[in-house]
Design goal:
Largest sheet of chain A: 7 strands, mixed
Radius of gyration of chain A: 38 Å
Oligomer: heterodimer
Radius of gyration of chain B: 16 Å
Number of strands of chain A: 21
Shape of chain B: elongated
Number of strands of chain B: 3
Distance between the termini of chain A: 63 Å
Strand content of chain B: 5-15%
CATH superfamily of chain B: Winged helix-like DNA-binding domain superfamily/Winged helix DNA-binding domain
Number of domains of chain A: 4
Number of domains of chain B: 1
Number of helices of chain A: 26
CATH class of chain B: Mainly Alpha
Helix content of chain B: 40-55%
Strand order of the largest sheet of chain B: 1-3-2
C-alpha cells in the first residue's frame, strides 16, 4: 500500500505520453486488421476502427488521468486561474499585496524591536537567571545596586542561588600606538559558569582568580577582540596591560554575549574581608543563577530573609532598604517597559489597519465579481470548487504579500539595528542581536492569511445567496454588492481612520516631546564645547593624578582657539554621574532616616566656566582650593533653595563621608541627566582636594569645536602619553545622543502613523470613488433635473466628511487611551494635550477630504446624457 | 453483430474483473483482451475502448497487472502485452467470489426458490 502511494507521489511507473499513444494506435491497427480479414478495404477498415474507438484524444486524456495525482493538478489549475485573476486586476492585486505586505513588515519590525528590549540577555539562559536589587521606596527605580556587605550576605547565605556581582571598571589599554580607554566590568570569578556564557576562544577565569596577590586575568568581549586584536587566537594566554597592570587574556566571549551591558573587558574581583563590612557604598549590580530546580519565588523568599538580617546587622545603613530577587526580564524593563508596550500596541494597530484595508479591498472586489461568480454558479460550478478558486487566489495574494512583508521586515530590522543610538544600545544588549523572530513573522503571515481567507470566503457564502436572476438581469452592470456591502466597507474605512488618528496622535505627542527636549535648557553650554573622557593610569598615586591635572590645566591655558577648559568627573547629558550621600549638620534627619543624596562633581577651577555654569552667589572653585587648604564645596541653586529656603546657604557646612565641607558659592542649575530628568542636588568640589583617576575634559572653543580635536588630543598626549582620551564629541552631539532614543521612537511612530494614514486615505478614496461610479446614473438624473455641480460636490463630499468625522471621533477616544501609555516618555507634553488632538484631527480631516475631492469632483462632472445612455 | 441497443452496459467495476479473468489464460495485448471479451460473450459485451485503456492503466498503476513491450508472434512489430501479477491473481479471486455472491443474491430476488 505504502509503496503504491510513494509510486503515485513520485509517478514512478507512469508511462510516457508516447507510450500511451503507441498503445492506442496499436489497438487501432489490430482492429483494422481484424476488420480487414472480413474483406473490407483497408481504408474503410481503418475508418471503421477509428469510428468504433471514438475520440482518440479523449481516450488519451482518460488514460493520462489514471496516472495523475489529481488534487495536485487541480491545485495547479486553481493556481493558474488565481494567477490570471491577479494579472487581470493588477491595481487590486498590487494594492492588496502592498497593504498587507507593509502591514506585516511594519508590525513585525516594531514588534521585534519591542521583543529585543524584553530579552535582556538573548545569548544566556533567561529563565535560570535572576536579578537581585536593593532599593528603597524613595529612590525607586534609580537604585538597584548592592553594597559589598549585602552582596556577600546574598552570596554566602542564599542556598537557592549562586550570586555574582559586577561593577563598572574603566582602564586604559596600553599598546604600541598609545593608550585606548576600554569599557570594562569587574565580575565575580564564577560569573561565566553561572550564566553559562559561551566562549569564542579560551575559557573563563581559572580557580583562584580575583584573589588578592594572585595572578590577574582578563576576558575580552567578541567585538573588542575583533576590533583590537582582529580576532587572532594568539591573544589567548598573552599578557596585555590594562591600566598599569599586566593581565593574562584567558578567554573571548562568544559573539552575542553581552553581560551585564556592552563592554570590552572583564576582570575578576572578590569581595575582601574588609569590603564585606561596607554597607554604605552601593555599587554592585548583582545577578544570580538559580541552583538546581529552585524557582524565582524561592530565591525571593530567601532574599527577603537576608534582607531582614542585613537590617538587623546594620540598621543605620540598611533600614528601609528592600532586597529583592526578580526575574531577569525586569532588568531592562523598569525604564523601557512603556517603550515595549507602546511599540507592541503600535505594531498591532498598524497590522489591524492593514487587515481592515485588505478586507475593504476584498469587499470592493467582491461587488465587481458578483456577476462572474453568479454566472459560474449558474453554469454548475460547485460551491466547493468555487470556494477553492477564491481561496487559491487569496492564498496567492497572501503569499506575495507575506514575501513582501518578510523582505520589508528584514530590511526594517536591519535599519533599526544600525540606527540604534550607541548609548541606548549599551543599555539594551538585545539590540546587538536583534533579528526577526521567525515566530512573529509566521504569526503575522498566518494572521494575514486568515484575514484574507475570511474575506475571500465571504463572496462564496454570499454567492450561494446571490439571486441569480436579479444579478444576471442587471446585464453585467454591477451594483454595490448590496447595501450590506457598502455599509460594511464604510465601517471598515471608519475604523481605519480611527486607527490612523490614534497613531498620528502618538507620533505628534512624541515629536513635541522631542522638540521640547532639544529646545529645553539643561543649564549647560552646547555651542562650541568639546567634551571627552580622560582615563589616567590607575595605580599612580593621588599626588601624581594632581600633578597631571595641574600640568594639563596649564597646558590648556593660552591656547589659541580655546576660551576655557577644565576637568570634571562626569559630563552633563552623558547619562553618567556619580551620586553621593551627604548630611547637613544641624538639620533634622530625613523622615525616612536616609541620608541626603545628590550628584557629586570634582572639577578644576575653569570647568564651570567651560561648561557654561554661572556662579550666582559666593565664589566658584578656584586656585586656592588645593589639598590641605580649607575643604570647600559649591552647590547648585536647587540645593541651596531646598535646604536653606531662607537663604544664606553660603558659609554653611555639608558633611560628605567623614569630612566636612564649607559651602562657598551657589552655581546655576544644571539638568545633569537631561531636561527630562528631575533636578537634583549638585555639589562641585575641587579635583585637587578629592582626586580621581578618571574624568572628563570640557573645552570651550572659539572656533568650531570639531576643528580643535587634534589640538586637544595633542596637548593631552604631550602632558602624559599614558593617559587615554575617548568618546570625544561636541556638546551638541552629546545632546543628540541623549535624546536619540526619543528621536528614534518619534521617528518610528511617525513612520507607522504615515503608513496607516495612507492606508486609511486610500481606503476612503476607494470607497468614495466606487460609490460615485455606482451612482453615475443617479447623479446623471440629478444633474439632468437641475442639480448644480456644486450640489453634487457637496452631496458626495458630505458623505466622505461624515465617514471621516465618525472615524475621528472614535479615533480620539482611542488616542486618549493610547496616549496614557506614552505618559512616562513625554517631556513637557501632557498626554491629553488639547493642541495635539485638534491639530491631528484637522490634519487628518484635510487629508481625507483631499482624497475624497477627486472622486467628488469627478461626480460633479458627470455628463447626464452619457450617464443616462449607458 | 447485435445492434447497440442489444448490448449490455457493463456493471460498474466489473470491467476490471473481466480483464483480470481474461489475463488468467495468459498474457495478451489490449486488443486481444477486448476481442476475447467480445467473442466469449457472443458480441453482447463490447468493451468501450475509451474505458478499456484507462482500466488497463489503472490496474497497472495499482500493481494488479504488468505491461511489457513484446514481439507479436505473427508480425514484425512490438505490442504491449499485459500479464497478471500475483496481486492481480489475489484480486481476481477476491472479486470473483464477491461476484458469485452478488449473482446468487440477485438470483434469489429475481427467481425465488419455490416455497415448500
Amino acid at each position: 500500500m505504502l509503496r503504491r502511494i510513494i509510486a503515485r507521489l513520485t509517478r514512478r511507473g507512469s508511462p510516457s505520453d508516447a507510450d500511451i499513444e503507441r498503445g492506442l494506435r496499436d489497438h487501432l491497427e489490430l482492429e483494422a486488421d481484424s476488420l480487414g480479414k472480413k474483406d473490407v478495404p483497408e481504408q474503410t477498415a481503418r475508418l471503421a476502427a477509428r469510428r468504433q474507438f471514438g475520440n482518440l484524444s479523449t481516450a488519451r486524456e482518460s488514460v493520462r488521468d489514471v496516472w495523475r495525482w489529481t488534487w495536485l493538478e487541480h491545485l495547479e489549475q486553481d493556481m493558474r486561474h488565481g494567477w490570471r485573476a491577479m494579472i487581470r486586476s493588477p491595481a487590486y492585486s498590487v494594492a492588496l499585496i502592498a497593504t498587507i505586505g507593509i502591514g506585516i513588515g511594519a508590525s513585525t519590525t516594531v514588534y521585534t524591536l519591542a521583543r529585543a528590549i524584553h530579552t535582556p540577555f538573548p545569548a544566556l539562559p533567561q529563565n535560570k537567571l535572576v536579578w537581585i536589587t536593593y532599593g528603597n521606596a524613595r529612590c525607586g527605580v534609580d537604585c538597584t545596586e548592592l553594597s559589598p556587605a549585602a552582596f556577600a550576605a546574598v552570596q554566602q547565605r542564599a542556598s537557592s542561588i549562586t550570586a555574582i556581582g559586577t561593577y563598572n571598571w574603566t582602564a586604559a589599554l596600553r599598546g604600541a600606538e598609545g593608550s585606548e580607554p576600554t569599557r570594562g566590568f569587574m565580575v565575580s570569578p564564577t560569573t561565566w559558569e553561572a550564566i553559562e556564557a559561551p566562549f569564542a576562544a579560551g575559557r573563563g577565569f581559572p580557580n583562584g582568580a580575583g584573589d588578592a596577590g594572585g595572578a590577574t586575568y582578563v576576558v575580552l568581549s567578541y567585538e573588542f577582540w575583533q576590533r583590537r586584536f582582529h580576532g587572532s587566537r594568539g591573544v589567548i594566554d598573552s599578557v596585555i596591560t590594562l591600566g598599569e597592570q599586566p593581565r593574562t587574556v584567558v578567554g573571548v566571549l562568544a559573539k552575542d554575549v553581552v553581560f551585564p551591558m556592552v563592554a570590552d573587558v572583564y576582570a575578576p574581583f572578590r569581595v575582601t574581608a574588609h569590603d564585606a563590612n561596607d554597607h554604605a557604598s552601593r555599587y554592585l549590580a548583582v545577578f544570580a543563577r538559580l541552583n538546581g530546580d529552585a524557582t524565582v519565588d524561592r530565591a525571593a523568599a530567601e532574599v527577603r530573609t537576608i534582607n531582614a538580617q542585613l537590617i538587623r546587622e546594620s540598621p543605620k545603613t540598611d533600614s528601609g532598604w528592600v532586597l529583592r530577587a526578580r526575574p531577569i526580564a525586569d532588568y531592562h524593563t523598569d525604564d523601557v517597559v512603556s517603550l515595549e508596550a507602546i511599540a507592541g500596541v503600535a505594531a498591532l494597530l498598524v497590522f489591524v489597519a492593514a487587515c481592515l484595508s485588505a478586507a475593504n479591498l476584498a469587499l470592493a472586489r467582491l461587488s465587481t465579481r458578483r456577476h462572474e461568480l453568479a454566472l459560474r454558479a449558474a453554469l454548475g460550478v460547485g460551491r466547493w470548487r468555487l470556494a477553492r478558486h477564491l481561496l487559491t487566489e487569496a492564498g496567492l495574494l497572501s503569499f506575495a504579500a507575506g514575501a513582501l512583508g518578510a523582505v520589508l521586515a528584514r530590511w526594517g530590522v536591519r535599519m533599526m539595528r544600525d540606527a540604534i543610538p550607541a548609548n541606548f544600545a549599551a543599555f539594551v544588549p538585545g539590540w546587538a542581536r536583534m533579528r526577526i523572530d521567525p515566530h512573529i513573522l509566521l504569526f503575522a503571515l498566518a494572521a494575514a492569511l486568515l484575514a484574507m481567507l475570511t474575506f475571500a470566503l465571504l463572496p462564496v457564502l454570499r454567492a450561494t445567496r446571490i439571486d441569480l436572476s436579479s444579478v444576471l438581469a442587471e446585464g453585467g452592470r454591477t451594483n454595490a454588492g448590496g447595501r450590506y456591502g457598502t455599509r460594511m466597507r464604510a465601517t471598515l474605512v471608519v475604523l481605519e481612520v480611527s486607527i490612523a488618528l490614534v497613531l498620528l496622535t502618538g507620533a505628534t505627542l512624541f515629536m513635541r516631546s522631542v522638540r521640547n527636549m532639544i529646545g529645553g535648557d539643561a543649564g549647560v553650554r552646547l555651542d562650541h564645547v568639546l567634551v571627552m573622557d580622560v582615563t589616567l593610569p590607575p595605580r599612580a598615586s593621588d599626588s601624581s593624578h594632581i600633578d597631571f591635572i595641574r600640568r594639563l590645566d596649564v597646558g590648556l591655558r593660552d591656547v589659541p582657539g580655546i576660551r576655557a577648559a577644565g576637568m570634571g568627573t562626569s559630563t552633563p547629558l552623558s547619562n553618567n554621574f556619580g551620586g553621593i550621600a551627604f548630611d547637613v549638620p544641624g538639620r533634622a534627619p530625613q523622615p525616612n532616616g536616609q541620608p541626603l543624596t545628590g550628584i557629586g562633581q570634582q572639577v578644576t577651577p575653569s570647568y564651570l566656566q567651560a561648561t557654561g555654569v554661572r556662579i550666582e552667589a559666593g565664589r566658584g572653585i578656584d586656585d586656592r582650593d588645593v589639598a590641605g587648604a580649607q575643604r570647600v564645596v559649591v552647590i547648585n541653586r536647587f540645593m541651596a533653595d531646598a535646604l536653606w529656603p531662607q537663604g544664606g546657604a553660603v558659609g554653611r557646612l555639608v558633611k560628605i563621608g567623614d569630612s566636612t565641607w564649607s559651602v562657598v558659592g551657589i552655581a546655576s542649575n544644571v539638568h545633569h541627566g537631561g531636561v527630562d530628568e528631575e533636578m537634583r542636588y549638585t555639589m562641585y568640589r575641587s579635583l585637587y582636594q578629592s582626586p580621581r583617576n578618571f574624568g572628563v575634559l570640557a573645552v570651550w572653543t572659539s572656533a568650531d569645536p570639531d576643528s580643535m580635536r587634534d589640538v586637544v588630543r595633542g596637548i593631552v598626549a604631550r602632558t602624559d602619553p599614558s593617559v587615554a582620551v575617548g568618546n570625544m564629541m561636541s556638546m551638541h552631539a552629546m545632546q543628540a545622543r541623549h535624546v536619540s532614543p526619543f528621536t528614534m521612537m518619534a521617528g518610528m511612530m511617525s513612520l507607522l502613523a504615515i503608513v496607516t494614514m495612507t492606508i486609511a486615505t486610500v481606503g476612503l478614496y476607494g470607497l468614495i470613488a466606487y460609490s460615485v461610479a455606482q451612482r453615475t446614473r443617479e447623479i446623471g438624473v440629478r444633474i439632468a433635473l437641475g442639480a448644480s455641480p456644486r450640489n453634487i460636490l457637496g452631496h458626495v463630499g458630505s458623505g466622505a466628511l461624515r465617514l471621516t468625522a465618525v472615524g475621528i471621533v472614535f479615533g480620539l477616544a482611542g488616542a486618549a487611551v493610547f496616549a496614557r501609555l506614552l505618559t512616562s516618555m513625554l517631556y513637557r507634553v501632557s498626554p491629553s494635550d488639547p493642541g495635539t488632538y485638534v491639530e491631528v484631527s484637522l490634519g487628518l480631516l484635510i487629508v481625507a477630504l483631499t482624497a475624497a475631492w477627486v472622486p467628488s469632483w469627478r461626480a460633479a462632472r458627470v455628463d447626464p446624457t452619457v450617464a443616462l445612455r449607458d | 453483430m447485435p445492434s447497440s441497443d442489444d448490448r449490455l452496459e457493463l456493471l460498474q467495476g466489473t470491467l476490471d474483473m473481466l480483464i483480470l479473468k481474461t489475463l488468467l489464460f495468459g498474457p495478451t495485448h489490449g486488443h486481444g483482451i477486448a476481442s476475447h471479451i467480445r467473442r466469449t460473450t457472443g458480441e453482447t459485451l463490447v468493451v468501450e475502448h475509451g474505458s478499456l485503456y484507462p482500466a488497463l492503466h489503472r490496474l497497472q498503476r495499482d500493481g494488479y497487472i504488468a505491461a511489457k513491450w513484446d514481439k507479436a508472434p505473427d508480425k514484425n512489430r512490438e505490442l504491449k502485452y499485459y500479464r497478471l501479477t500475483a496481486a492481480g491473481r489475489r484480486r481476481l479471486a477476491h472479486q470473483e467470489s464477491r461476484w458469485n455472491e452478488l449473482v446468487r443474491a440477485i438470483g434469489c430476488v429475481m427467481t425465488p426458490a419455490p416455497e415448500v
